[in-house]
Amino acid sequence: MAKYFAFNAQHAIDYIKNLVKEEGYDFFQPDQTLTAYEFGDGNLNLVFRISDEQNNSVILKQALPYARCVGESWPLTLDRARIEAEVLVNHGAICPEHTANVLHYNPVSALTILEDLGHLQILRTAQINAEHFPLLGQHVARYLSYTGFYNSDFYLAAQDKKAKVTQFTNPELCQITEDLFFNDILREHERNNYPAQLQSTVSKLQSNAALHLAIAKLKAQFLSCPQTLLHGDMHSGSIFADQSTTKIIDPEFGFFGPIGFDIGSFIGNLLLNYCAQNARISEFVIRRNYHSHLLTCLQESYSLFEQQWLALIVKQSTDLNLQANGYAEHFMQQVLQDAIGYCGVELIRRTIGLAHVADIDGIEDEQARLDVQRHTLALGEQLVLNAHTCNNKEEFFSLLISQLN
Ligand SMILES: Nc1ncnc2c1ncn2[C@@H]1O[C@H](COP(=O)(O)OP(=O)(O)O)[C@@H](O)[C@H]1O
Ligand SMILES: CSC[C@H]1O[C@H](OP(=O)(O)O)[C@H](O)[C@@H]1O
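That is the input. Now the predicted structure with adenosine-5'-diphosphate docked in place:
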């Protein structure tokens, strides 16, 4: 069996040609001249586009044995390529309309061939440019509720569920999230990254005992609550979209965890963009309209997510105990409170932790950027602290609006 090595563009071409010639894959005609280039802009992996003369193309994504954004000093398991491919296959079987299609997967080379989604836009880039996506909330709700429900104890037979929890055990990538989301932000840490002007705000946040307690509860849920197969990194860079289509990529942080985590991360990224637009859009009416679009997307995504979960529990639950009157509502209230908490943590960690977002870091005016950072920190803190007071989504939306004005 061939050994792992990190590809260059020529390796990517040779690999694809071999699949077409020797293994019967039909991505390209056998006699086509192929070209390739690497264009990954994520924190972790190589991404190549391989095209023929007619501009047909596929994507080859390969894991490196370390985190790309840091280098070889941060070794990282190649098993993340397996997790990513297998989550995509699992989610794609449940919700093909919103999951990137896996065309081929090789665990030894830690690579996956994916459909090329380059005709769509990465959501983060498009939202930085204040583009509207009227179906985004609806599509994300569908993806998260369906993949969530059909991988949960409400639906899976008990032993199948445990087998899947084992299949998707992802300790190294979970450790990254455990460190970056929960640990680093509450203390001085060399991985943290924020300007000196924020020091007093950060010190105050880090000395808030109530915040430490609330984040301890969220981390405990993350560590020991295998409710469903999460995407695990549901930020705006993991979503391709246009006016009619939404496709999810990059679930290498996938594992069985708390249902509120993915929807909370998604909403957190909408709010990071919302806050950033205060500095990006100077014209009041345009900013107000865009803010209103983001809030509609947020409310729609959460409302439909909850509505579809509740409908699936009623229609498709297989576990008799979990069908007890009132249990579904009790369960979804906990999911809501978790989601609000994880949303708040995402706002904080993207402001002061290792991995930031271009929505904020790309704001050129320093004072305007600092104002946005203070806002995301305050909003994140309030959401984490007050999540437990929200008994239903309406109370969440009111809390949010009170913090945004
Ligand atoms: N299926 C795809 N089609 C087109 N471009 C893709 C696809 N998957 C990834 N990319 C491109 O590669 C970039 C990095 O991919 P991503 O999966 O986020 O990598 P990482 O795991 O390193 O974060 C994306 O921002 C996008 O531009
Ligand atoms: C060192 S990993 C930091 C950060 O990067 C991941 O995102 P992506 O792979 O999509 O760039 C994830 O959000 C991690 O928290």
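The longest strand covers residues 45-51.
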